[in-house]
Design the sequence.
């Protein structure tokens, strides 16, 4: 397959490194997709056929797996990914109001990215911080007892 | 000077890393030499970040720590504004029976030396001196039942795998812990990961498996790192590898990370995911014990089930079995969460009443308002009203009240909670997380949301439809995601009919 300009030869090389690192692993597809997303920020369209060929599965299968899991994204996310817990324990301490605040402030809904590419908002169902909710994850960093003021500070930093 | 500060996710989410930096900086500034140990959490989440200072009398606790509280750790400790006294003397600690979590928050999680000082490896060493069938028997005799939710006797599962003939067998640890209000698996993996390594090694030796997988969640970054490091420590020390502690048994393991699918906590969905497939639930039979990972005999056990095995082997089946009530033997790690004054992890023998847990141990709500309902067992568990607070915390007693204890998470909600909204959320969650295999779950949950919206809009004819839908989901679903979503929905409807009163919207 020929690499598109966006993905490029460098991208292809990175991908092959990832594939080599996972050779011989039982059930390697998820670890590979995680590694690809880690390297590229998303799973580029062009990567799937290469992965599929390497694992000897069809492109449709690879796509089916990728789309089954909430974590994998087809498109790049905003510079800051804000994940807010929507589950019951966090709801009991005001997660819904906090989510409304975030959506209002950012002018986006769940799974959307602000027009300037600064922030992507994702729902998450439990971070194991259920005794100190509402819980959030900001670019992988855990935040407990998140209130509107804390959230505003986080969003300020994300601009 | 020896200071402990948790690396536990909850502590970190409340600022522990920043406190750690400040402690190091303050020590440097004062020219005091300190050893800062990042330990697990003792489970008192309302006191996190909780620092401890080792003294001749024992460890003194300070919390919840803020940056301003750091300098005073180097002055007169008795006068510290956040001084709580000796950790072991705190009410929360004294009332517990810590068997599985005995070391969590106590030891340096990655120090094998510390681990062995606190009875680590004794269970494995005893197991190595026993015949595999005798290990299985010991676990059976302990009365240990699966802590992941279903409560299936662990020893019986192990026996099936032990008796199966195969070229390769596996131990798969279910660390997918997706239930809201649960964090015991996470806390153990972060605070005492070697116990899980030891438990899995014992399981491997008992059933003849040489390879183990821990399947955990991408939402647990700290637990993932801690487990990976612990596996390296265990490998370097010969606990894992071709000759476990110089025996003729081989056992090794690795960590695998899920990708944000709740259903992958279901054991067959988990196995598909581990094999690199879509996390669709498999029909049973075949049982995973006979045809599990890669079609081979596989033990799938929850973290807490496996982490309870070392203490059972160390102290003996009878010791463990003596704790508890009825057919619920041993201890359970309660996870008290939501709108709660004293939230966290509390390990205790089965049998406390729900009311004792919520009011006496957890101190009621954080908001100070009356408790309205407690959801026990995660998103597939029933909401309990205060009128059922005399229910003893056992598998059977909760089942008798149309509920379940599941992985022992409790979400406390105050009187402002709209139970219709919670019922709707249960349906919405099921719709989002359904693996799609069966219609009653995939479509039924979507209908459930719509129907509850009609109830909320004041349509009285919709209410019987909710009950019908729940019956269909209960009887027509392959797994408990579709099959148990009716628990939170119907319990909300049954115990809090006022919230579903269709006249409400009309009157407004
Ligand atoms: C939708 C669903 C989600 C589940 N999630 C988990 C989980 O996160 N962790 C877990 O140990 N068991 C979970 N289970 C239960 C497992 O299917 C299985 O019973 C368990 O891993 C067996 O281990 P145990 O016997 O040690 O409990 C889930 C079940 C269902 C139906
Ligand atoms: S009940 Fe739902 S999650 Fe379970 S197998 Fe059926 S469709 Fe999948
Ligand atoms: S429910 Fe929000 S972190 Fe668990």
Sequence:
């Amino acid at each position: 397959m020929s690499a598109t300009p966006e993905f490029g030869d460098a991208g292809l090389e990175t991908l092959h490194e990832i594939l080599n690192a996972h050779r011989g692993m039982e059930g390697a597809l998820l670890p590979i997709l995680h590694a690809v997303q880690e390297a590229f920020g998303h799973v580029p369209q062009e990567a799937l056929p290469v992965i599929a060929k390497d694992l000897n599965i069809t492109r449709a299968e690879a796509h089916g797996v990728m789309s089954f899991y909430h974590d994998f994204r087809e498109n790049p996310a905003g510079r800051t990914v804000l994940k807010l817990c929507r589950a019951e324990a966090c709801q009991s301490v005001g997660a819904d109001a906090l989510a409304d605040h975030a959506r209002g402030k950012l002018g986006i809904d769940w799974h959307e990215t602000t027009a300037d590419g600064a922030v992507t908002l994702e729902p998450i169902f439990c971070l194991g911080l259920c005794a100190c909710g509402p819980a959030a994850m900001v670019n992988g960093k855990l935040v407990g007892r998140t209130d509107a003021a804390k959230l505003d500070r986080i969003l300020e930093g994300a601009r | 000077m020896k200071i402990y500060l948790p690396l536990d996710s909850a502590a970190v989410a409340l600022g522990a890393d920043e406190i750690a930096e400040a402690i190091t900086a303050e020590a440097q500034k004062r020219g005091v030499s300190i050893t800062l140990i990042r330990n697990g959490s003792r489970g008192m989440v309302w006191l996190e970040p909780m620092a401890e200072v080792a003294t001749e009398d024992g460890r003194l606790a300070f919390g919840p720590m803020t940056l301003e509280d750091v300098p005073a750790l180097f002055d007169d400790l008795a006068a510290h504004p956040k001084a709580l006294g000796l950790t072991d003397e705190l009410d929360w600690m004294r009332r517990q029976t810590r068997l599985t979590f005995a070391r969590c928050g106590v030891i340096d999680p990655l120090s094998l030396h510390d681990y062995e000082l606190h009875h680590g490896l004794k269970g494995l060493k005893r197991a190595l001196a026993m015949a595999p069938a005798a290990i299985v028997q010991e676990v059976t005799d302990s009365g240990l039942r699966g802590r992941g939710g279903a409560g299936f006797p662990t020893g019986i599962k192990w026996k099936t795998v032990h008796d199966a003939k195969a070229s390769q067998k596996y131990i798969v640890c279910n660390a997918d812990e997706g239930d809201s209000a649960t964090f015991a698996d996470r806390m153990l993996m972060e605070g005492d990961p070697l116990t899980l390594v030891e438990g899995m090694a014992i399981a491997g030796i008992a059933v003849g498996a040489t390879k183990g997988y821990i399947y955990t969640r991408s939402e647990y970054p700290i637990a993932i790192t801690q487990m990976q490091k612990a596996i390296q420590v265990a490998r370097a020390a010969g606990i894992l590898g071709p000759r476990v502690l110089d025996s003729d048994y081989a056992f090794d393991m690795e960590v695998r990370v899920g990708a944000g699918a709740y259903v992958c906590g279901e054991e067959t969905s988990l196995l598909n995911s581990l094999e690199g497939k879509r996390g669709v639930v498999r029909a049973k039979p075949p049982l995973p014990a006979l045809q599990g990972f890669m079609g081979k005999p596989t033990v799938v056990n929850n973290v807490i089930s496996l982490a309870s095995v070392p203490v059972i082997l160390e102290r003996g089946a009878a010791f463990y079995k003596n704790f508890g009530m009825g057919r619920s033997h041993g201890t359970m790690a309660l996870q008290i969460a939501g709108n709660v004054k004293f939230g966290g992890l509390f390990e205790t023998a089965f049998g406390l009443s729900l009311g004792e847990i919520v009011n006496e141990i957890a101190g009621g709500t954080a908001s100070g308002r009356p408790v309205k309902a407690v959801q026990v067992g995660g998103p597939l568990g029933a909401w309990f009203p205060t009128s059922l607070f005399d229910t003893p915390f056992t598998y059977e007693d909760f089942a008798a009240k149309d509920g379940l204890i599941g992985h022992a998470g409790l979400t406390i909600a105050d009187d402002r909670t709209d139970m219709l909204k919670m019922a709707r959320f249960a349906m919405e969650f099921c719709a989002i997380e359904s693996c799609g295999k069966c219609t009653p779950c995939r479509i039924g949950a979507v209908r459930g949301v719509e129907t509850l919206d009609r109830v909320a809009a004041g349509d009285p004819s919709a209410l019987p439809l909710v009950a019908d839908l729940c019956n269909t989901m209960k009887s027509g679903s392959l797994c408990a995601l579709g099959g148990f979503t009716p628990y939170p929905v119907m319990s909300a409807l049954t115990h809090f009919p006022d919230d579903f009163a269709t006249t409400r919207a009309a009157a407004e």
Remarks:
- Residues 355 and 389 of chain B are 4 Å apart (CA to CA).
- The mean pLDDT of chain B is 97.
